[in-house]
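> @MW can you paste both from yesterday?
MW: sure, first one:
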Amino acid sequence: MTSAPKHTVMRDAPEWRKLVDDYRRNGVVAVPRLVSPSDIADVRVALRRYIRDTVPHLPPGDLVREADGVSVRNLWRMEKYDDYFAALGNREDILHVVGALLGGKPVLCAVETFNKPARHGSGVPQHQDNAYFCQDPPDMCTVWIAIDAATEQNGPVQYARGTTHTLLPHRASGIPGNSMVMSQLREYPAEQVTTAILEPGDAMIHHCQTVHWSTPNHTDYNRCGLLLVYRASHTRTDPALRELYTQAAAAFAARQDPGM
């Protein structure tokens, strides 16, 4: 297990080249202090407000709860319901970093959370995001911003570097919030795996075909991550990939409906 190469948002031309080279080689890079402490405080306030005021009115597809039926696991498409999160996803400094990595004009696709609440936070199986996103070419990435500290113990995300070149077969997982899982789970050598140990405001940016996963959170500490998802403006939805995803989603929905 190793740490990703670290980069700061302000950098000269050689540092930019290194950031882009590391991303293209590894499929994941760490960007410490992408978001300032004051901004993280604002995000926490906005999340509490969102959960209090918006969550009760969300359609079922835009909210996932943990197995306890109370704790929030995921919030989806937050940019549709709240101007604060739409503006955060379109911040010029973040778009500048993302554009350099994608090699094209970045388009905000989604603002999401993986809340991973204390004691109830469930794990995420091995997967590649493009099994959901279905983009061709796969020039898409996720900016994973730590709202709480991510430690070795509370379910940090783990990334298998160098796995972006091929979209591996996936199947329906039966897990709400993570409907797709790799058909054949793999054991990656420790030296290939980067574990995202982060302080609030730090970020990991990963390619949509980087294999990643996380373990449950059994600690007394929350591990919330805010995710900003982007595609390059030149990507298009692949019909064959979309059909596979639609079939998996339908199979999961059928299992959830006791009348079927």
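MW: second:
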Amino acid sequence: MSGRGDEIAHAPLCGRERRSYRAFIAALKKARAGHRLEREDALLLIQAEGDEWWALLEAAAEVRDRERGRTITFSKKVFLPLTNLCRDYCAYCAFRKDPGDPEAKTMTPEEVLDIARAGERLGCKEALFSLGDKPELAFPEMRRTLAALGQETTLGYLRAVCAQVLAETELLPHVNPGVMTEAEMRALKAVSVSMGLMLENASLRLLRRGGPHFRAPDKHPRLRRRTIADAGRLRIPFTTGLLIGIGETLEERVDSFLELRALHDAYGHIQELILQNFRAKPNIPMRAHPEPTIEDLARTVAVARLLFGGRMNIQVPPNLILDVPSTLWSPSPKATEALDILLRAGINDWGGISPLTRDHINPERPWPQIEWLREQMRARGFELRERLAIYPEFIRRPGFLAPALSARVLARVTEEGYPA
């Protein structure tokens, strides 16, 4: 890094601008010293532009490097869209379908296992299950499908196929099934090494008519906070995060971070924050909504790093920042600038990447090739390292893995907790 924050510390300012600038620098100094940032600090930082933006990124990278070094992780996975039927109608989602749609699909156990086995042959270690939120509550067609599969609920079916994947492959399930009860999570913990639920945003305003969550009952922040808290009480390694650019304000981003930080303070179970940037698609209600800039995403990432500290794992999905033709992997130099910016903003993880399956949430955006990404990281002074769906620091923490899964995971990792 250039030390640019020290240079702008001597920039001439006056009046209210000087007071604001001094407060900004004071907040950066707190973060660099490892002190806890408060709401007013984060609100100052997330508005950074120009030289202050660079200083913010420099501080975030410094905090990341001090705690985590120059290792950037990823998980080699298969993406299993168990069902794309969903009772929610989020205005930015192209994944969910209604019964009768030609693309509506619920996978059979055989289809799940075929993909899992193919992924295993390619060296994948994670089976990522994503699915619509409780479609049986809205659609009789889904209830009939479940009955034919010998199940009453979608989450019961998810548990059964996770158990099959564990029984018949070496893959480790990670599940993203939407809002869950404590009992449902307890059942899923026996067959998965980690779970996830994006908070997306804690703003009630986004639930109003015309907002992105207006027709999405399961996106109510109260329900999602409860699920994340229940996961903490159950000692489940948990992934959560924010969706950036869906109409939220900078203040709402900060408040959402603070709610997640309070949950992590209480239970210590959030293993990863994902900051996912909205991408417009032609078949969604928000197709004309502006996308966040890479600069906006980066300052949000940097504020997350400084609010949560150097130990938190912070991820941005690489396929959402690299504008690459879907038919071949050939990133332009301009596209790869986004890698530089996000690394400068303090990320330490690129998430799940599949050599086999596409991103079914964003099918138009291919995963980066792993060896290409490894070369890009090496050229920037970082080591790309594979991890499991459970982060190394959670593997040996008492109670965070079901006993049978704990033995299985420990047999496959080094002392550091990475795949052997």
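> thanks! Confidence is low (pLDDT under 50) at residues 1-16.
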